[in-house]
Structures are given as structure tokens and as C-alpha cells.
């Protein structure tokens, strides 16, 4: 069949537009799902965000009240600030760790890389709920392994659970630990695609490994870095199960995050309209983040 | 570094080439470079592996030993009592069956729908397809977690509340899956499609008889990813299900954490049980995941 293809000397346009039914049949299932579970919820969510809908019965349009209340709601601000802080901490940590590990795993010098790769991969198989349980077990104040080791070494037990910032710190570590495998996979694929000849030329010119990393590896994997940062930012902004299982947003409500806030106002107190407004604020932030990153990425590519 | 590490800088590249071909051998320079990299790699590997190891080892300790000081790494007298208690107390067998049903059906549907859509996006040129492609892109910006309340209402109004379909159907369309197949089919030469057309094959039979079989590696990779996402899903199943007989494993685990006084013995056992299926799937299909040249746009 491939032989025939080469026989066709009249090269047809690479893709033809005369086919309409076949592609429509092929995408039909996803179009239906997209309309039902994406477009429809998005539209009614936007509509509800201007109402006082509680999920049942009649509702009234209240204009921008929900949004105004939202910006006067200190609980929402706290959740937003905590979400942004978590994102700003976990994304760079994840980036550095996964890039470092990907380089080590690919490096010819490191022995046992294929075994180590499996070790790095295992956290990714564990569900966020169990990751939360695991780190809670590790960082228990009175019983955890970490505090036990610290006390054995002569230090004082650290209040991992009762101090809000330390509590967030544990979730950041857990989040980075959990997310490394996935970013690592993307980086490994990207690093392997960098032509070896670049490195050979550079080492002829006397560039050391660090210089090679800065001048060759980093620029070559820039598109992947962009994707890794973007995906990790989106995922961090909507993190919830990890917090739920690790400290339940605690101590108290100090580590309640945006999705938890949406969940609580929407489903615990039945303020669907209010929760929808919060959802749209989150969506606008996510879009802003994505657009900023896209612009930065373009700038860097054009330079 | 190459020049400083090797005694004769002039032949730096040849030494490098040699040590690359035989990583274990090489001169003193190769060894000196291997030590720091290997050490760093294994320090990190220990940091990543130890939490899981400690967790799993602890799960074999009898409930009374969990907090007895001094803490010991290996259980004195290993027992499965935590596992047994978890399995009995939390109706785990039912949760396992439920989760398996949901994961398998969602995965099959996801792979099928993504393969069709990815092929259409890669091999047909049509402005509606472009619009739909942008739509799929948008789903990565506005994930379902962000639209919990309205999406819940839609699924409820469709009559899918408290049913497995309510968990399965919204999860079938994934941008990642469509991207993976699109990228793959872009690398398949158009001439292959053209030749089949000249042979008189109809569009859909070209897809089913030529394209589907050659995309098997992508199918497997996406199947593993999809299975992992759905096995580990928490918030959506929690919202969708109120009948305890339909709960999934993750809801079962979280319900053990929810109690005021955590029974760690049961929780550790239950957590390790919940990890086993994915570890098994991973071990069987490891090489597909590890070698996956996963392309841009991945998300769940």
C-alpha cells in the first residue's frame, strides 16, 4: 500500500476539506460530552453566579451582589491568598526537583538510574488522599517519624500540625513529592530529544557540564518547561484532596483553599449562586495565569 | 569539566566518547564524574522512597506497636491485622468492585473517544474541527473542579445523580487523550490515507482497519493514565454518590480519616490496600509509561 502511495505522482493537497461526514462522526461522542459537561455547566454557572440560587426551587437575579459580597468576604480572601501562596511555593519546588532528577536519570554518569527512576515514579501512583494520609503519618506532632528523628538528634518537636505555616509547608513538600514523577517524565522525553552533537560541540569548546546545562539543555527544553509550569500551576490552584487528607484545611480553617471554599459554600450551605461566582473568579485567575505564561513564552521564543 | 577532568585536554572528546560507550569503564575522569552524580541521584531516591517504605512497613505493625517508643523501622512481629480490620470495617471489597467498574468503563470509553477525535483533528481539515480543537483546549483552562456546583446540577438534571454513569460520562472527554492521539496521527504519513482512498476504502474503514491498529502504543499509554486518574479520583465521586454501597475506594479511605480519633492501624492498612491495584498495573505496563514520549497538553 505504501508502494502505491509513492506511485501517486500528482501530490494531492496535504489535507482535504471535502470530507465532512467522516470527521463529524469521529468527533461526535466528544462533541456531545463537551456540550453536556462543559458548555452547559459553564453557561449555567455564569448565569447562576448572578442569582441567589440554592440548588432547588425558584431564584432571583441579584446582579453583581455575589461578586461584591465575595470581595468583602475575608474567608474568601484568606482562601485565595493561601491558594496563591501554595501555588507559588509548590510549582518552583516541583520544577527544580523534577528537572534535577530528570537530568540525573538521563545522565550517563549516574549508576542505577533505571532502578531509581521507578522509585521516583511510585509517589505518582498514590492517590492524593493516600499521599495526605502518608505525610500526616510522617509529620505527626506526637507520633511522627520526623519529629522522632528531630528529638533523637537533640532538637525540639516541631508543631507541623498546629502551626498554620508549617502545616502548609508539609503540604508543599507532599505536593512536590507527588508531582515530581509526572514532570520528570516530560523532562526526560525533552532532554532525550536534544541532539547529542550540541553537547559534543560544546565540550570541544571546553564547556563544562553546568555551562552545557545552562546554554544547551535549558533553552532546548524551554517548551516543555513552559508546559510543566503551566500544568503544575493549574493543578496547584485547584488542589483539594491533598489538604483534606493531610490537615483538613487546618489548623482550624487557616489552610482552607479555593476549591474547598467553593465546595463548602456550594454543597454544605447550598449557596450555589455564590459558589458559582467564586468559581468564575478562580477561572479568571487561571486564564490570567495561562495568558501571562503564554506571553512570556512567546517573548522568550522570539528573542 | 571534561577538560579539567582528563589529563590530556586535547583528546577530551575521544575520552568522553569512550566513557559514553562504556559507562562502567573509562578512565579516572569517568569515575570521578560518576561518583557525585550517582550519590546525588541515590540521596534523592532515598528521600523519595523512604516515606513510602516507612508507611508500608508501619502498616504491618500491630496496632499497639504503632506509637511505642523507640520507633523501630521493621515491625517486631509483623501482622496483617490492620489490613483485615480495614477490609472488614470499611466494606472495602464493595469499594474495590465499584472502583474497578468505574475505572475500566471510563478507560475504555476515554481511549475510544480520544482515538476518534485525535484522528479527526490530525487528518481532516475543516473549520468546525478547528473550533472544536479550541474548545478542547479550553477544558484545560476550566477544569471540572472549578465548576463543581454547575456541573453537579447538570449531572443531577440529566438524572445521573448517585449512579456510576454520573462519574463515568463527564470524565470521558480529556484534552490529554485527544492531544496524544492527534500528535501521534500527525506523524503518520498522509500518503497512507491517500493510498487507502485510492484503493477504494471508505473513510471510517480506513480509520478502523488501518489507523486504530497502528495506534496501539498510544492506546495503552492513555489507558494507563486514565486508569490512574480515575482510580485516584476523589471529589467528583464524593459529590455524585450518596449511597454507601456505591462508594469508591478513595471515599472509603477518606471516611477513615474523617473520624475524630484516627484509627491509624486501620487507616494504614486501608491505604496500602488501595495502592495495590495501581502498583500492579504499573509493574505490568511499566515500560509503556516510562518510554512514553508524552506530548504537550497533559492534564487529567
UniProtKB/TrEMBL annotation, chain A:
The entry's family comment says: Belongs to the binding-protein-dependent transport system permease family.
Name by which UniProt lists this protein: Sugar ABC transporter permease
PROSITE patterns annotated for this entry? ABC_TM1
Biological processes, Gene Ontology terms = transmembrane transport
Whether Ion transport counts among this entry's keywords is no
Bilayer topology annotation: Multi-pass membrane protein
- Organism for this UniProt entry: Streptomyces asoensis
What are the GO cellular component annotations? plasma membrane
Q: What are the UniProt keywords, alphabetically?
A: Cell membrane, Membrane, Transmembrane, Transmembrane helix, Transport
Q: Which residues form the ABC transmembrane type-1 domain?
A: 80-293
Could you tell me where this protein is found in the cell? Cell membrane
Where, by residue number, does the polypeptide cross the bilayer? 21-43, 84-106, 118-138, 166-191, 212-234, 272-296
For this protein, the record's Gene3D superfamilies field holds: MetI-like
Q: Does the keyword Transmembrane helix apply?
A: yes
From TrEMBL, chain B:
Task: Extract the coiled-coil ranges from the record.
Answer: none
Matching entries from Gene3D superfamilies are given as: MetI-like
Q: Which Pfam families match?
A: BPD_transp_1
Q: Where in the cell is it found?
A: Cell membrane
Against InterPro entries, the record matches this protein to:
MetI-like (IPR000515), MetI-like_sf (IPR035906)
Biological process GO annotation list? transmembrane transport
Q: What keywords are assigned to this protein?
A: Cell membrane, Membrane, Transmembrane, Transmembrane helix, Transport
Task: Give TM regions.
Answer: 40-60, 95-121, 128-144, 164-185, 206-229, 264-285
Tell me the segments the record calls region Disordered: 1-31
What topology does the record note for this protein and the membrane? Multi-pass membrane protein
GO cellular component terms, alphabetically, are:
plasma membrane
Please, which domain of life does this record's source organism belong to?
Answer: Bacteria
Q: Which residues form the ABC transmembrane type-1 domain?
A: 96-285
Please give the PANTHER family that the UniProt record associates with this protein. Answer: ABC TRANSPORTER PERMEASE PROTEIN MG189-RELATED-RELATED, LACTOSE TRANSPORT SYSTEM PERMEASE PROTEIN LACG
Q: Which family does it belong to?
A: Belongs to the binding-protein-dependent transport system permease family.
Report what the protein is called.
Answer: Carbohydrate ABC transporter permease
Organism encoding this protein:
Streptomyces asoensis
Amino acid at each position: 500500500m505504501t508502494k502505491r502511495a509513492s506511485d501517486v505522482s500528482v501530490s494531492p493537497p496535504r489535507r482535504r476539506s471535502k470530507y465532512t461526514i467522516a470527521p463529524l462522526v469521529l468527533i461526535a461522542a466528544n462533541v456531545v460530552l463537551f456540550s453536556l459537561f462543559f458548555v452547559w455547566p459553564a453557561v449555567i454557572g455564569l448565569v447562576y453566579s448572578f442569582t441567589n440560587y440554592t440548588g432547588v426551587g425558584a431564584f432571583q437575579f441579584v446582579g453583581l451582589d455575589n461578586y461584591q459580597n465575595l470581595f468583602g468576604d475575608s474567608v474568601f480572601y484568606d482562601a485565595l491568598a493561601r491558594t496563591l501562596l501554595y501555588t507559588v511555593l509548590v510549582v518552583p519546588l516541583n520544577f527544580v526537583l523534577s528537572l534535577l532528577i530528570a537530568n540525573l536519570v538521563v545522565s550517563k554518569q549516574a549508576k542505577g538510574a533505571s532502578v531509581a527512576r521507578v522509585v521516583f515514579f511510585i509517589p505518582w501512583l498514590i492517590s492524593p488522599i493516600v499521599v495526605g494520609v502518608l505525610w500526616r503519618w510522617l509529620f505527626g506532632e506526637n507520633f511522627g517519624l520526623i519529629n522522632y528523628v528531630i528529638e533523637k538528634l537533640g532538637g525540639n518537636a516541631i508543631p507541623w500540625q498546629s502551626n498554620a505555616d508549617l502545616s502548609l509547608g508539609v503540604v508543599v513538600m507532599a505536593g512536590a513529592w507527588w508531582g515530581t514523577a509526572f514532570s520528570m517524565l516530560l523532562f526526560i522525553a525533552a532532554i532525550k530529544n536534544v541532539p547529542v552533537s550540541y553537547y559534543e560541540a560544546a565540550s570541544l569548546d571546553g564547556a563544562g557540564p553546568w555551562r552545557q546545562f545552562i546554554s544547551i539543555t535549558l533553552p532546548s527544553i524551554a517548551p516543555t518547561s513552559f508546559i510543566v509550569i503551566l500544568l503544575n500551576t493549574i493543578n496547584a490552584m485547584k488542589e483539594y484532596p491533598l489538604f483534606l487528607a493531610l490537615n483538613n484545611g487546618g489548623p482550624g480553617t487557616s489552610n482552607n483553599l479555593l476549591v474547598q471554599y467553593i465546595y463548602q459554600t456550594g454543597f454544605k450551605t447550598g449557596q450555589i449562586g455564590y459558589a458559582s461566582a467564586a468559581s468564575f473568579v478562580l477561572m479568571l485567575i487561571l486564564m490570567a495565569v495561562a495568558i501571562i505564561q503564554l506571553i512570556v513564552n512567546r517573548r522568550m521564543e522570539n528573542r | 569539566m571534561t577538560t579539567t577532568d582528563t589529563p590530556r585536554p586535547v583528546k577530551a572528546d575521544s575520552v568522553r566518547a569512550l566513557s559514553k560507550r562504556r559507562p562502567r569503564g573509562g578512565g579516572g575522569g569517568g569515575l570521578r564524574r560518576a561518583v557525585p552524580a550517582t550519590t546525588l541521584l541515590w540521596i534523592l531516591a532515598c528521600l523519595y522512597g523512604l516515606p513510602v517504605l516507612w508507611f508500608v512497613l508501619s502498616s504491618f505493625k500491630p496496632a499497639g506497636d504503632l506509637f511505642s517508643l523507640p520507633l523501630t523501622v521493621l515491625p517486631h512481629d509483623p501482622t496483617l491485622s490492620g489490613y483485615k480490620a480495614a477490609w472488614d470495617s470499611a466494606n472495602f471489597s464493595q469499594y474495590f468492585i465499584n472502583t474497578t467498574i468505574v475505572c475500566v468503563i471510563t478507560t475504555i470509553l476515554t481511549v475510544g473517544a480520544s482515538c476518534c477525535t485525535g484522528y479527526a483533528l490530525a487528518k481532516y481539515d475543516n473549520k468546525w474541527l478547528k473550533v472544536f480543537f479550541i474548545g478542547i483546549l479550553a477544558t484545560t483552562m476550566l477544569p471540572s473542579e472549578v465548576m463543581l456546583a454547575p456541573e453537579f446540577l447538570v449531572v443531577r438534571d440529566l438524572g445521573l445523580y448517585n449512579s456510576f454513569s454520573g462519574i463515568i460520562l463527564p470524565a470521558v472527554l480529556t484534552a490529554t487523550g485527544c492531544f496524544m492521539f492527534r500528535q501521534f496521527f500527525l506523524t503518520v504519513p498522509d500518503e497512507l490515507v491517500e493510498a487507502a482512498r485510492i484503493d477504494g476504502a471508505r473513510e471510517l474503514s480506513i480509520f478502523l482497519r488501518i489507523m486504530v491498529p497502528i495506534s496501539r502504543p498510544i492506546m495503552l499509554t492513555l489507558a494507563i493514565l486514565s486508569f490512574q486518574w480515575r482510580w485516584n479520583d476523589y471529589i467528583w465521586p464524593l459529590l455524585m454518590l450518596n449511597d454507601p454501597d456505591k462508594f469508591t475506594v478513595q471515599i472509603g479511605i477518606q471516611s477513615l480519616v474523617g473520624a475524630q480519633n484516627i484509627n491509624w492501624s486501620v487507616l494504614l492498612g486501608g491505604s496500602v490496600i488501595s495502592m495495590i491495584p495501581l502498583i500492579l498495573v504499573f509493574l505490568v505496563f511499566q515500560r509503556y509509561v516510562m518510554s512514553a514520549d508524552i506530548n504537550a497538553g497533559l492534564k487529567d
